[in-house]
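Homework-ish question, so no full write-ups if that breaks the rules, but can someone show me the predicted structure for this set?
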Amino acid sequence: MTKPKLTYWFDFASTYSYLSAMRIENLAADTDIDIIWQQFLLGPIFKAQGYETSPFNLFEIKGKNMWRDLERLAQYYDLPAFTKPDPFPQNGLRAARIAAFYAGEDWVPQFIKSIFFAQFTKAALISDELIVTSLNDLGQDGDALLHQAKSDLSMKDKLRQVTEEAQEKGLFGAPSFVTEDGELFWGNDRLEQAIDWVKRNSQ
Amino acid sequence: MTKPKLTYWFDFASTYSYLSAMRIENLAADTDIDIIWQQFLLGPIFKAQGYETSPFNLFEIKGKNMWRDLERLAQYYDLPAFTKPDPFPQNGLRAARIAAFYAGEDWVPQFIKSIFFAQFTKAALISDELIVTSLNDLGQDGDALLHQAKSDLSMKDKLRQVTEEAQEKGLFGAPSFVTEDGELFWGNDRLEQAIDWVKRNSQ
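A: Not a homework solution, just the prediction itself:
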């Protein structure tokens, strides 16, 4: 029996993607849904909408409210206090290449969560050091993977390719949850409904 | 004893405000919270953000997903099938003046709900006829109120004044829920949390 799938599209710069990363495994735990953790890059997708940086930065009043919203939501979900990294958004390109290239490997969701967690609960930069340490902690060869992320063209290509795929699927923000029957749920607020949709439509 | 207040800021053109209008009384029913139904105009607020029309219309892919989201949410909340009015957004200025000027009167929430309901479950235009019929159904003098909405300058002023107040409070979209201690919750997705906030902070 093939398990029904739900693809969780995320970007390391996306604050609301962080909340979903922390919640998705628990929410799917009592289901037979297979969660696909799918890295992509928001940058090219925002550019196509005319944004040169995060909409958080472009619309000041709205952005300010979103930071407050994130503080409240972290509390609501029983997560540690939310911290805003400086600068925001950060350059998470090397971590993104690793997450996209090795998508499907057992250790990848844990790697993704540790990058998110450091960024949004310790205001940590997504530095080479953070990447290497996070990988080593998971029993991977951090130095080798970082070296690959810097030099291996097929890694760069993979990330570009999945980002193009996201655009073809009509993604316009993150997180997005896409079902096998083509429903696109946008935003951390829709995570429960996306899971519910897959449950109801795969029985 | 004064009851704690939660102000529900809405605009008739706001699809997600419709969902909140249909839900807010039930959600507040078991609390002692006093819901203030506060009409304002999104137009000037969107203009200040550089939007000349609804963001639904400006960002095509995102807008398309929002219509789908509304269909799914209407189902999720057990509301009748969601219908998109044409044109969108509509001119609801006369209804808005009435709702703003008579805010606080007993019949106003029901008037607001009937305008929203006709618009988003029957794709009805916010015509003079709809306004008059809705008011008459509530035991008001529809013709007299419509006449006032067309000719009474103090009604026009009131709507302008509350819209300025909304801008001063930092509102950037609708629905917005504002607590007495100054928390601003944006969006129908935050209605439960806004009510919960008032409950926790007014005991």
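Now go work out the reasoning yourself. Hint: Chain B has a mean pLDDT of 95.
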